[in-house]
Design a protein that fits this description.
The protein is mainly α. Helix content is 78%, strand content 0%. The protein is globular, with a radius of gyration of 22 Å.
């Protein structure tokens, strides 16, 4: 394929992306994603409390880090929060699971309606469904949202595991794993940059392909989704390399703004991810339409819920 044709594909994808108001859809995705990130953070803190509760050295390191980064007036409050967090870790985790069960599908549903708008010009209609099917659909969306969060978390964990095996710095956890799996010591070394990028691209591509196939409310063939998944994997990997440290530096630079600054930085990151996901779907649609010389013929009314 010539360079001119590739440029035209990206140009048409951008036109479709603008015409369908994907910027607004990305903002809605970022808003709803925060409702899932915060409960997931509670769950992560609950798991961390189980580890920290048995590792005094790691607790001291955490308190020392807080003393270095926080102002003097906030150190006492930070120490009190850490102590209460260790005492109520299980309750925070259960509360996070309950809230995540209700909110995880909000971001997923936003992306799903955007995908339906891209591929079929309209969302999947729910007006003619009986109330029982609406209840079943609501529950299934919650389950799919939870599965989506778990799947993305698995791919992120695998990516970070390949990049560097640090085990959160917990000496007790490291010793327990080394005692159970002595041969794992060989793998606890950072990999080369080339292998890291290759594995990150491969994992991101597989996760993107599964997600783009799973996302629409109707069945899609695999082949039209491959260009969008490849573009999504490349863009997300470059975003991680180029903006990951920049956003972290911005968060540390403006740490005086506290929680508000952290939420703004996180919202910017999630919005960029939403922009990439919507543009990747537009790119898949344009590639499929240009390859057939017309609008792609897809299987109509097969709801995969």
């Amino acid at each position: 394929m010539s360079m001119r044709r590739w440029i035209r594909l990206f140009w048409l994808s951008g036109q479709l992306w603008l015409r369908l108001d994907c910027v607004d859809l990305s903002a809605a995705f970022a808003y709803h994603a925060l409702q899932s990130v915060l409960p997931a953070l509670l769950i992560a803190l609950s798991v961390a409390s189980r580890i920290l509760g048995h590792d005094d050295g790691l607790i001291e390191s955490l308190l020392d880090a807080g003393e270095r980064w926080l102002p003097a007036s906030a150190i006492d409050a930070f120490q009190a929060v850490v102590k209460r967090f260790l005492q109520q870790g299980l309750g925070a985790g259960l509360f996070g699971v309950a809230v995540l069960l209700l909110t995880a599908s909000n971001a997923y549903l936003t992306l799903q309606r955007g995908a339906d708008r891209i591929w079929w010009r309209r969302p999947f209609s729910e007006r003619r469904l009986p109330w029982r099917q609406l209840v079943v659909r609501y529950l299934r969306l919650r389950i799919k949202g939870m599965a989506w969060v778990a799947l993305m978390g698995l791919f992120i964990a695998l990516d970070q595991l390949v990049s560097s095996w640090r085990l959160l710095g917990s000496l007790d956890l490291r010793a327990a794993l080394l005692q159970a799996f002595p041969q794992s010591l060989v793998w606890q070394r950072p990999v080369s940059l080339g292998l890291d990028l290759t594995v990150s691209l491969a994992l991101t591509f597989v996760g993107s392909l599964l997600f783009l196939w799973w996302l629409p409310s109707r069945r899609l063939p695999w082949r039209p989704l491959i260009p969008g998944a490849a573009l999504c994997a490349l863009a997300l990997t470059l975003l991680n390399l180029l903006l990951g440290r920049v956003l972290l530096a911005l968060g540390l630079r403006f740490q005086a703004y506290g929680v508000v600054g952290g939420i703004l930085v996180l919202t910017l990151w999630v919005w960029l991810v939403g922009v990439i996901l919507y543009y990747a779907q537009c790119f898949s649609f344009v590639c499929a339409a240009r390859g057939l010389g017309r609008r792609p013929v897809l299987q109509p009314v097969s709801d995969r819920l």
